[in-house]
Amino acid sequence: MPEHEPAAAQSRIAAARRRAHVAKLGMGAAALACFGLGMTLVKANVAGHSRHALRPLDAPPRFQAIVRHDALDRGLLAPAQAAPSATTAQS
Amino acid sequence: MIAARSEFRAMGCEIVVAGANDFELTRVRRLFAACDRTFSRFRADSELSAVNRAAGLPTLVTPRFAEAVRRALAAAERTGGLVDPTVGASLVALGYDRDFADLADDGTPAARVAPAPGWRTIELTGRLLRLPAGCALDLNGVVKAAAVDEAADIISGDGFVSAGGDLAVRGPTDVALPAGGAVRVVRGGIATSGCERRRWRRDGRWHHHLIDPSTGRSARSPWREVTASGASCLDADVAARAAIIAGADGPAWLDRLGVPGRFVAHDGSVTPNGTWIGMVGEPACI
């Protein structure tokens, strides 16, 4: 900038720079807000987008533990007390 | 005293239902029919056949099928792999590729058998199942016993359900045993597995359906049949089959699990394990 330029002109340029800076910040914030809003709407309305935290596609660990524990548990037998009404035979 | 008793055939064996009313009996029949349609190895349109054909690729299975695989894997884990669902290809190679009633020794040589791929090669995540290429599942034992348990739950009063001799009881039931004797099943189920009834000849040699996964061949066991008790028919069936395949160590193996077992050798002699004797008594007292 030339030294002989009036001080009034310099202050106008500085003011324009400040306005441009504020405008850039505003546009950035608006873009972020639009992106966030858009993602929220997509998650809420578009099938295929997860609305909850992802979980493994498997039976709950507690269920698996019960199945493993129950496997090969023994039954309850006693001496026969009457004529058999059923038969166990090799299958 | 159990009154009503009905018999019908499903899943290749005789089903006996005692203590069910007409409505419950209809539900039981539908249950076994559905299991047959889904899990038969001999129906090209069954889900099992479709899954076996898709070995090597991920397959989305029905919830019922996924549950059966999960149960089979749990059984394999608890038996140290003795009862393994991946022996389907071995059964076919040995000639058991059609309904048992239709099997005949037509002179066809048995195909080359290999050890089963092993239950750990099965990948199941939710309903997404992947078998390794060349692997074929056989879920018949697990599914039949689980269906017996499910059917027994349908019965509202005292009674029992039996499929080919594998039983689940509702209320105490006296049950005749192989090689003589009887026992009262107070709770749970009882099952007998053996290598003499479901056997066939192929290329002049006898084979049976209890496959040793480590060889892919019919298990060589000192026991003709093993009867075991479980909290459910499924537990009992898995224990009995594993005890046969375990061979001479079978009685002690069941004792370690706290499962009562009764072993009949090929000469007809009966050997109950310690847990059985603790519940029922010595054989002479039965």
Question: Could you explain how this protein is built, in words?
Answer:
The complex is a heterodimer of chains A (91) and B (286). By secondary structure, chain A is mainly alpha-helical. Chain A has two helices and two strands. Chain A has helices spanning 7-45, 61-70; strands at 76-79, 86-87. Chain A is rod-shaped. Chain B is of the alpha+beta class and 286 residues long. Chain B contains eight helices and 17 strands. Chain B has an eight-stranded antiparallel β-sheet with strand order 1-2-6-7-10-15-16-17. In chain B, strands 3-5-4 form a three-stranded antiparallel β-sheet, covered by helices on one side. In chain B, strands 8-9 form a two-stranded antiparallel ribbon. Chain B is globular and about 50 Å long. At the A-B interface, α2, β1 and β2 of A face β2, α3, β6, β8 and β9 of B. β1 (76-79) of chain A pairs antiparallel with β9 (182-187) of chain B.
Keywords for this structure?
heterodimer, A: 91 residues, mainly alpha, 2 strands, 7% strand, B: 286 residues, alpha+beta, eight-stranded antiparallel sheet, three-stranded antiparallel sheet, 8 helices, 17 strands, 32% helix
What is the rounded distance between the termini of chain A? 101 Å
Structural class of chain A comes to mainly alpha
Shape by Cα distribution of chain A: rod-shaped
| Rg for CA atoms of chain A | 38 Å
What's this model, at a glance?
Chain A is mainly alpha-helical and 91 residues long. Chain A contains 2 helices and 2 strands, in the order H-H-E-E.
